[in-house]
Amino acid sequence: MTEFNPTRFDYLIVGAGFAGSVLAERLASELGARVLIVDKRPHIGGNAYDRYDDAGILIHPYGPHIFHTNSKDVFDYLSNFTEWRPYQHRVLASVDGQELPIPINLDTVNKLYGLNLTSFQVEEFFESVAEKVEQVRTSEDVVVSKVGRDLYNKFFRGYTRKQWGLDPSELDASVTARVPTRTNRDDRYFADTYQAMPLHGYTRMFEQMLSHPNIKVMLNTDYREIVDIIPFDHMIYTGPVDAFFDFKYGKLPYRSLEFVHETHAREHFQPVGTVNYPNDYGYTRISEFKYITGQEHKHTSVVYEYPRAEGDPYYPVPRPENAELYKQYEAEAKAREDVTFVGRLATYRYYNMDQVVAQALTTFNKLRARHEARVSQTVTALEV
């Protein structure tokens, strides 16, 4: 690092979501670095930010964020900043007038078709309806090759068309490959080893993460407003990679969401945390926060999610032509020794929260190695 200068930061971090906050904490705590973290929003936490609404109910303004991971390292790291409330998310899909478990499991099939199959029999059922696909390329291929055309049409096609504005046959296989199919009665949405919610919410966890005295936070700020004014040694950028390079190769496609929040004067609005609507209405799902947070309250707050073509970038659109476009920006990013690109938007990938944390921790190890090499060079130069 350069000679200490009280007006100079070692790192300027753009974005106070998971990627930026984890790196700020690690750099400050482990290396003693002076970090300035800026965000154009009026709050920390990125899309995982939560707050109390006018009714006093803890909500997620940017839609439900359910924490789950198989990584002990990620879970142990975040446990430094929060206690946890065990929570296993359950989702129902509104199909043919019934609310049925999703991912598709034994109960889904039996209730939908009025059958009484066992786990062994439902496996045979899937095999009997599955369509042979020579090479799985698209999201449609993934589903019809596992559970056949009827279940695909009832549970996946409409939801995917709403969510992405494209037919599953036009989307990469990764979109629907994320959702498993089960032959037992396991109705949990996730099967990860660690499934829990921050006991006092995500925002409190981020506040703890960024509480180190070496970390300064600047909100309501576009980094371009201050990048030439505040001196720093290295930038960590977690925003959209195409915007960083002024869209020189064109705009990377994203899907956005519009969130409509409601509070109802009743104990509960629906039977589980989330209900999907693959075939009806303009929204894809309704989530009820009290299930997710465990809060007790006489009223309840829910959020409707409406997919949109324009708005804040939430989901990179996984198509081959978009991957090719990103490669041009990726090459530019790799050539920049003065900037480190990390996170969903900066690497144009759909990551779960734990994957972003893991990526940030890996990035920190690379930055630490860079730091130690620079310190070693400085010591050698002084000895000479």
Topology:
Blueprint: E1 9-14, H1 18-31, E2 35-38, E3 51-52, E4 58-59, E5 68-69, H2 72-78, E6 84-86, E7 91-95, E8 98-102, H3 106-113, H4 119-129, H5 139-164, H6 174-177, E9 194-198, H7 202-209, E10 215-218, H8 223-226, E11 232-237, H9 241-244, E12 254-264, E13 274-276, E14 285-288, H10 289-293, E15 300-308, E16 315-316, H11 320-334, E17 339-341, H12 344-347, H13 353-383
Parallel strand pairs: 1-2, 1-11, 2-10, 7-13, 11-17
Antiparallel strand pairs: 3-4, 5-9, 6-9, 7-8, 12-15, 12-16, 13-14, 14-15
Helix pairs in contact: 1-13, 4-5
Description:
By secondary structure, the chain is of the alpha/beta class. Among the domains are: 9-44 and 210-252 and 317-383, 3-Layer(aba) Sandwich (Rossmann fold), CATH 3.40.50; 102-177, no CATH class. The protein has helices spanning 18-31, 72-78, 106-113, 119-129, 139-164, 174-177, 202-209, 223-226, 241-244, 289-293, 320-334, 344-347, 353-383, and strands at residues 9-14, 35-38, 51-52, 58-59, 68-69, 84-86, 91-95, 98-102, 194-198, 215-218, 232-237, 254-264, 274-276, 285-288, 300-308, 315-316, 339-341. The strands form four sheets. The chain has a seven-stranded mixed sheet. Strand 3 and strand 4 form a beta hairpin. Helix 1 packs parallel to helix 13. It is globular, with a radius of gyration of 23 Å. The model has no long low-confidence stretch (mean pLDDT 95).
